[in-house]
Amino acid sequence: xxxxxxxxxxxxxxxxxxxxxxxxxxxxxxxxxxxxxxxxxxxxxxxxxxxxxxxxxxxxxxxxxxxxxxxxxxxxxxxxxxxxxxxxxxxxxxxxxxxxxxxxxxxxxxxxxxxxxxxxxxxxxxxxxxxxxxxxxxxxxxxxxxxxxxxxxxxxxxxxxxxxxxxxxxxxxxxxxxxxxxxxxxxxxxxxxxxxxxxxxxxxxxxxxxxxxxxxxxxxxxxxxxxxxxxxxxxxxxxxxxxxxxxxxxxxxxxxxxxxxxxxxxxxxxxxxxxxxxxxxxxxxxxxxxxxxxxxxxxxxxxxxxxxxxxxxxxxxxxxxxxxxxxxxxxxxxxxxxxxxxxxxxxxxxxxxxxxxxxxxxxxxxxxxxx
Length: 371
Description:
By secondary structure, the chain is an all-alpha fold. It has a domain at 30-262. The protein is 64% helix and 0% strand. It contains 13 helices and no strands. The chain has helices at residues 3-24, 43-53, 63-93, 105-114, 127-147, 153-172, 181-203, 211-227, 248-267, 275-281, 284-305, 317-322, 337-365. The chain is globular. The two termini are 39 Å apart.
């Protein structure tokens, strides 16, 4: 594939993965093929794979500049939004909400790395600080390995995979808890970033099996995994819920990525007709940051209408005020989850549009912007 095709493929892939993230947060399983590919068996890791795929070796030439650039791109907007959501949580505490912690140095600057759920309304963005740490770890590791003449892709993958599996083994034994969850999370996710790099450098050229055979073999393998294991979901954020040992989480990560990446490749020739999907794929940061607030705004509307509509009479006010994960379905209809999906994604894209417009206007009005 040429560069444009590759970019469109990965934008479609990114869009699919962020849709799965949003759907997962409302317990909407319509895209998992009857439990064949559970979201929580791969969807977070897919973003690490994508980030690794686009890693450039030239970054190691001036790795300090690379780290600075990543901080400005990932962490600076994160900290600004973290402050926004901290102020929002504090304001809502005054009117009866109990979601989120209070503003402090810890919740503003430390908790984003330790857990990322400090204010509730943007808890899905925990991934951003984790990705930043992984990218810093990766470039520093590769710089050192290059100096030692040990930078071999297969060696890196196997070494990080062994470390990740050992981390899972410790987690199963109850040893990854408290502050240990920070290094545990990073070490667990790190091999999938390396897999993205390896795939681009070594494996992509061999990914040519016709799709009918590709999907047949993949479904047979995945069915065997599903039938022989007690649930495939795991928690990357908390480094927990590994019920099938150290290897299965990585195997299901690979099969989930393999399935949806091939789907994305098949959709690539239609990218001209799927501009909304490719736009969404370029907007995953915003969706990760804001879709939970989109859910909350929808629930606020339902709460406001509940005294007037019989179908909303069972709305749980106490849960709305205290539980960020509360999802209310009128008449207990799962079909309403489509509305949550649209609200989460639509509100996020609106926030991106508004903030982008403000940023562009600020840049135009800055006295030195044209110097």
